[in-house]
Amino acid sequence: MLLGTWASPIVTTLGFLLIRSQLxxxxxxxxxxxxxxxxxxxxxxxxxxxxxxxxxxxxxxxxACPGDEPFRSKILAINELICDHMENIILHRxxxxxxxxxxxxxxxxxxxxxxxVMREFLAPENEGYRYSKQMLAxxxxxxxxxxxx
Length: 149
Prior knowledge:
The protein contains 6 helices and no strands. The chain is elongated, with a radius of gyration of 22 Å. The longest helix is centred in the N-terminal third of the chain and has 50 residues, at 2-51. It has helices at residues 2-51, 57-60, 71-91, 98-114, 116-121, 133-145. The N and C termini lie far apart (73 Å). With 149 residues, the protein is an all-alpha fold. 74% of the residues lie in helices and 0% in strands.
């Protein structure tokens, strides 16, 4: 009888420790999988810039959106792919460790600040209404701190 009194709390504690360890392992796996997915899409975007180097200045060098078609549509399509990717990162923020998310946060804010194409695209009267409030707020907060808005 005395052995059962002592054994039950020990078994319960060991069970909780095992569950905690399994949850941490699952969390680590989720972070790894999310990071791989994010970097995979990023690689696709980089490949687009490698294959179309004339498009890069519209996102990194402050060049305004071109007016001539079909080049304008190409730039806007790349921009939409990047914005969708950024939103995915922001909406899955909890699946990333803090340091990884912070690096992406700085990248996204910097890209937004350097790209008139992206800022115009994400304006509420254009396509901004289709994106999450979290994404728009994060980008705008970076623009305010860097004096772009």
